[in-house]
Amino acid sequence: MARGRNKKSVDTKMEDINLVPMMNMVVCLIPVVLFGTSLIKIGVVDVSSKFGNSSAKPDDKEKEKTLGLTIGITEKAFIVKSQGGVDVSEMVGGTPGEELKIPKAPALVFDGDPPREIEVTDYDYRLLYNYAVKFKKSYPKESMVTITADPGIAYKHVIALIDSLRERLGQDEYGDNKGFRDAKAKDDGSASEKYLYNHPVLGQVQ
Amino acid sequence: MVEKKEQTREEAIADYVAEKHLAAKRNRKARSIGDDDATVTINSLMDAMFIILVFLLMNYSIDPIKVDGGEDLMLPASITEVNPSASPTVTITARSIIVDDTTVVNFEQNNGVPEVPVRAMLDQKHSTGTIVALRDKLKNMADEQATNAVFNGKSDASLTIIAHGETPYSLLSLVLSTASKTPLGGNFSFAVVKGGTRGAEKR
Q1: Residue B6 touches chain A, beta carbons under 8 Å
Q2: From the CA of A9, how many Å to the nearest CA of chain B?
Q3: Confidence band, pLDDT 50/70/90 cuts, at residue B150
Q4: Number of domains present in the structure of chain B
Q5: For residue B75, what are the CA distances in angstroms to A43, A96, B94, B164?
Q6: Is there a contact between B169 and A177 if contact means CB atoms under 8 Å apart?
Q7: Which residue ranges make up each domain of chain A?
Q8: Is residue B37 part of a domain?
Q9: Which of A22, A43, A124 comes nearest B192 by C-beta?
């Protein structure tokens, strides 16, 4: 009386998932996303201006006590001045009473394909930073710098100048451009220790 | 049996090899798929597509500023980390001034230096003067903003300047001077490309 078991065979074979609709969707999504993708990251640099009736203008009482750092960009140099009548040349060890000029200087930069070091003559942002730290030590509460330029100076130099003066770096003085370029900003301490002149004000053409 | 016994050793080996060869051939035939069952393997393509999609989604821009870069509009690089916010924009290219996608002034080229035509100015002062079309457009935008501010409670009197890196300071100064004569001219944000370096550069 062996009972014959009526086994139904179970189909264990796995069916492949139909990926074609998924593929269609992905192919449609790629152009849409590609259109809205920006590979260049845009940022902003905030500035005030001295045109019109700006609130950035220091009052006369304050003017006497402060440095009022002003930097002019000419074709050949930065010209550093003080609105408060401080002798900035003397502060950095120059001849007292003389106009403080920071001429363009040769610097090694990376350029080309493949990148290699080449010598260019550009504004001396490193020396300007070194001086700015000295000014900041004497006037730690000041964070405003007025920037003016000759009519033909390209706007990109203004941005580079603002970048150089914004943050206080690891060292107070840099001897070479490479060290200055690669330096990291200070990330601790009070605002006056972290920032140098982070409130740029654009003035009228010189 | 008799026949087998009579086979030499070499013949037996040859038979064995032939038999194996035949078996292998049968196996290959059994494994192969007929023409009707052939399918395209799209798994690897799917993988590639998916990776591309994820990469693009990661870079998907929701920036409030759209910059159509070109030779006429190459933004300067900066080390700033500040992201742009939604505000009216004034674009200064090498050829014109554009306010929110509308060209308001086309420059005249003076020895390769862009200049605002005298007829577009309210006065002759080239650094502190007023560009009439720009002033009017910005005033209109300020009025619209003021109306919107009544409803949504947001009032932001700042202007984003998207300027070509080679723009002369006199021209930039003229635009800022004009903007300062409108309610939008209090503070300015200059659009830059992130990832620049500090200090001297081949500019």
Answers
A1: no
A2: 23
A3: confident
A4: 2
A5: 10, 40, 11, 5
A6: no
A7: 48-202
A8: yes
A9: A43
Per-residue pLDDT of B20-52, as tens digits, reads: 999 988 888 776 656 566 666 777 888 888 888
Same-domain status, B49 and B146 = no
Mean pLDDT in residue range B126-142: 84
Distance CA B96, CA B105 (A): 6
Do B169 and B133 share a structural domain?
A: yes
Query: In chain A, what residues touch B165 (CB-CB under 8 Å)?
Result: 154-156, 159
Tokens of B129: 């003067």
Find the CB nearest A37 among B56, B113, B177.
B56
Q: Which residues of A touch B179 (CB under 8 A)?
A: 51
B86 and B172 assigned to the same domain: yes
ipTM > 0.90, yes or no: no
Q: Which domain holds residue B190?
A: 77-194
Distance CA A92, CA A138 (A): 11
Distance in angstroms (rounded) separating the CA atoms of residues A36 and A61: 52
Count of Cβ atoms closer than 10 Å to residue B48 Cβ:
11
pTM: 0.75
Domain shared by B100 and B160, yes or no: yes
A114-118, A187-191, B52-56, B57-61, range with greatest mean pLDDT: B52-56
